[in-house]
Amino acid sequence: MSIDLIYVIAGAAMLLAAVLPALLERYAVSAAMVLLLLGMGIGLLPLPEGMRLDPLEIRPQIERVAEFTVLVALMGVGLALDRPLDLRRRASWRTWSPTWRLLGIAMPLTIGGVAVLGWGLGLAPAAALLLGAVLAPTDPVLASDVQVAGPAVDLDAAGGSKGRSSDGADDAEDADDAEDAEDADGSGLGEPVDEKDDVRFALTSEAGLNDGLAFPFVAAALLVAGAGSVSSWAVSSTLHWLAWDLVGKVVIGVVVGVVVGRGLARVAFRSRRPSLRLAEQGEPLLALAALVMTYGASQLLGGYGFLSVFACGMTLRAAERSHDYHRSMHEVVQRLERLLTLVILLLLGMAMTKGVLGELDWRGVLIALALVLVVRPLSGWFGLRVAARRADLPGGLGRKETLAAAFFGVRGIGSLYYLAYAAGEHRFDDERWLWSTVAFTILLSVMVHGTLATPVMRYLEGRRERAAAVGTT
Question: Sorted alphabetically, which keywords does the UniProt record give (predicted)?
Fold first, then answer.
């Protein structure tokens, strides 16, 4: 690819990153839709012969760029969530009920549904399982239209502007009062945090966690591919996968993220040296330093780095929750994420009209349509409705909210990363077909979800406001 053309594409992406969000705010059109279509149009132009976007040739570059983009998005998601999660309190776990259901029920069902469909359509078992794992996680990068906007800062609680150094005493007292309220009358968490939109919270928290939790299933697909067939996968391999890939790496990833997040938060907010209290200086680059440090440490220790980065972001957010430093960090991360996303979408759109869809057939189209319109919505609905929490409690969803949370499982950059990673670990005979199917699924998801996100979320917000107005009269 010509370096001059790269500069042009990067410059166009920067300009669009600044213009598109405000320009499209009122319309049922997402920036991702515009960028993909623009990239497809550019791909139809006569481009330099050396500019090849064959995913098999540039797989390492796809893996690294997509990997970093997802990491940036995960840090942003971790910083954006206002709802606390206290692992020691059952009441706090309950407010995250939609998240656990989407992760523990909907995601495995989605993986299984896609894998079974792919196997039934003639894919090898390993390729079918890989396709399910690659397409199952919702994307933290492209789902901004249905996610929380960012960290809300209560300036009154923060003492006016910069927050208070309370060593977490206020948060602990609030958590105690909230749990006492639920234990007393079962009515919820008193005055909850970030309870205005459980749909956005569910989709945001799901996107933050399921990118890391898809890794065990990618590992399973690689193990099956190495064994040659499912029947050749020995009992010892199954036990190793359960103990290490499914449990061990998850635990390591979460622990590393929490430890690094707490250490950096202590330095940034409560260091004895003023020069190290970055929160007082308002230096937002701590978020990027935390991202890189956490991911590297987790990978070195064998954990899932994606989970670590999200856990680190949440841990930083939990420190001095009312401090406006969190907003500063989130804004920097969000801007970088937006720029990376637009560049990737432009290139992906160009690749779609330069041959990446060349192996797409009716099987790939059927799988994509089934995933977006049937498998994910049904899996999400089932997961959210089984023994559902009451809709008037934090973490409870009404029927229409459940439909929205089940439907908006946006696919995107994470799927590109997982496929590139797996293709680097093992050679799949159907690799070109897998790239075509994944690219088409992303295109379908961006168009369907991007068109419906704005009107659906506005409808739900208006419905909630009307209910609140009736309740106050």
Answer: Antiport, Cell membrane, Ion transport, Membrane, Transmembrane, Transmembrane helix, Transport
